[in-house]
Predict the structure.
Amino acid sequence: MAYDEDLADRIRDLVEGEPRLTEKKMFGGLAFLVGGNMAIAASGDGGILVRVDPDQSDKLVDTTKAEVAVMRDRPMAGWLRVATEHVRTEQQLAKWMNLGATYARALPPKR
């Protein structure tokens, strides 16, 4: 499945002006990176993939509609999937974009 281009455009609108922002095709989707670290992606599996502080993963899964991302049959702390129906509004999507961008900014920049 290809990523949702409309969702990617919505993310692009939200991250406009973010310093050190790049886009890269990753994980079958389109990722938005801050300082070379992935913040959020329009996932090729639908919805979004968000990188968050691993220490916040369990709390976010317990209190939101997010699920821990599973990659190669392994749950990945700090990587969350949010289905399309839970990011339909700008407010819903902005919440996840802000979480992802905040965590990406806190990481050392990649060269």
Q: What stands out?
A: The beta strands are 21-26, 29-34, 37-42, 48-51, 67-71, 74-82.
